[in-house]
Amino acid sequence: YPTNWDASDNGDPIDFEFGMRYFYSIGQTNMTVAGGDYSSSDKSHIIELHGRIDDNSTSTYLKGWAGYSAVIDGTYSTPGTGGTATMAGGKVAYAGADFGYMPFGDGNFQLGGFAGYQYLSDNPDMGRSNYVTSTGGGQSEVNNVEIHMLRIGGAVRADLGDQFDITAEAAIIPYAGIGGTYGAFYLPNFVDGPATFEQGSAGTISGNLYGAAGEVMFGFHPTDNLTLRVGARASYLTGDAQMSYTAREVGTPANSQAYISNITGLEFFRYGGLLELTGSF
Fold first, then answer.
1. What is the pLDDT of residues 28-78, one digit of tens each?
2. CB 253 within 8 A of CB 200
3. Residues in the chain, pLDDT under 70
4. What was the pLDDT predicted at 4?
5. pTM for the model
6. What is the pLDDT of residue 5?
7. DSSP labels for 154-220?
8. pLDDT at position 107, please?
9. Which residues share a beta bridge with 99?
10. Would you state the pLDDT for residue 168?
11. Which residues of 117-141 are buried (b: 16+ CB within 10 A; e: fewer)?
12. Among 145, 160, 148, 131, CA closest to 218
């Protein structure tokens, strides 16, 4: 663009940032279904890649990020464990993108809002419950729960002199669709009519959640094109969901019945510290 199209105090119409983060996160989940309580508490070491493009001519930006857990440890409890058990790995993975507009401020301070989307697979190991198949054999599955979130929020970015900066954002999550396999679901034998039934499948979770998220980062610029940042991040989701599963008659597994149970007290909470190395040009 011609220089007179640049509406900011920055001489470049477009800025790029790309880098890597280390996210030390603490996660907690809770829920109650079919009279049983499920909970987990983990510490996850996550490697994250991120990028951002700022169009100074229009005061807009597009940013994206993706992370995957390298190491997970912690504890969990389900009706099937009969107490607290130790995790053996699992998976936390996510990816998202925000489009923002920062119309307020000048070259050293910007304030605005954004809208975006994030995918989350929050599945630290919670064991797996055995169930009976239609042929009378045994099977089990791991948790594979996925969440698709919409994000709407506000952001601020400020330069504190030539070598320091601060960025912060807060978002509401008005909708987050949850679905997938909940392999840790445990169903004790029960009587329905004249027959006794046992667990005949893993659980399938579905529902609509909502929540909020926030992040703040403090940056140091040792050179014009290199930034080191430290900060913190937190997110919380809750809402209504259901668990679908199959029960089979004891001794006659081909005789099955589908059931749906409401989930109460469903929560996903994750927070922790961030360390970032970013290059800009």
1. 999 999 999 999 999 999 999 999 999 988 999 999 999 999 999 999 999
2. yes
3. 1-12
4. 56
5. 0.91
6. 56
7. EEEEEEETTTEEEEEEEEEEEEEEEEEEETT-----EEETTEEEEE-S-EEEEEEEEEEEEEEEEEE
8. 76
9. 62, 115
10. 97
11. ebebbbbbbbbbbebbeeeeeeeeb
12. 160
Residues 6+ positions from 161 with CB-CB distance below 8 Å: none
Residue labelled with tokens 């994750």: 270
> Residues with Cβ < 8 Å from 139, sequence gap 6 or more?
130, 131, 132, 133
Would you say 234 and 214 are in contact if contact means Cβ atoms under 8 Å apart? yes
d(CA 126, CA 122): 11
Tokens coding 150 = 């919409």
Within 13 Å, how many C-alpha atoms sit on residue 254's CB side?
1
pLDDT for the residue numbered 75 = 97
Output the CA torsion sign for 65, 63, 211, 144: negative
pLDDT at 234: 98
Q: How far apart are CA 239 and CA 265, in angstroms?
A: 8
